[in-house]
Specification:
Radius of gyration: 21 Å
Strand content: 5-15%
Shape: elongated
Largest sheet: 4 strands, mixed
Number of strands: 4
Low-confidence stretches: 27-49
Length: 163
């Protein structure tokens, strides 16, 4: 094989490997599993929300970089600031793909217009209280402000729950 043919074959193999890598990566992002993000999520996924505040992260089938950042910053804040509440089951984190069959009602239930962090008070007497933390989009590039916003709202929800 002459050097020119060898170089052509090598370039074609490189392009094929690149296409395969992009395809595998896209398929993983296109249909992410709604895997539990914490121990609290496991409990919440199979149980009612009767005695806790649930921090939902809603997303669609296709997830953008900003959407993934919102989820990561929210999870980090909750896990760092409310570790004891997570362990005790007073807070649960749940990730929901609203494009999955059976999940479309969440869009109407919580007036979702895109990826969102929503607090839901499931405690007795809470009256179905919920709040869409819509400022997560504007605070996305300011991690300390984002974290403060999440902490303050979750704390407020915990304090107001059951009143």
């Amino acid at each position: 094989m002459n050097p020119r043919k060898a170089l052509t074959v090598l370039l074609l193999l490189f392009v094929a490997a690149g296409i395969a890598w992009v395809g595998v990566r896209a398929s993983r992002k296109a249909a992410p599993p709604d895997a539990p993000v914490s121990a609290g999520n496991k409990a919440a996924a199979g149980a009612t929300i009767a005695n806790r505040v649930v921090v939902y992260y809603f997303h669609g089938r296709v997830r953008c970089v900003s959407c993934n950042r919102i989820e990561a910053l929210s999870n980090k804040t909750i896990e760092e600031a409310f570790a004891a509440d997570l362990s005790a089951g007073r807070i649960a984190q749940v990730v929901i793909d609203v494009d999955q069959p059976g999940n479309a009602h969440y869009v109407k239930d919580y007036a979702l217009t895109g990826s969102a962090v929503v607090l839901v008070d499931g405690r007795a007497g809470a009256g179905g209280r919920w709040k869409n933390l819509d400022q997560v989009w504007t605070l996305l590039d300011d991690a300390p402000a984002f974290s403060k916003y999440i902490r303050e709202n979750v704390s407020g929800f915990l304090a107001g729950a059951g009143k």
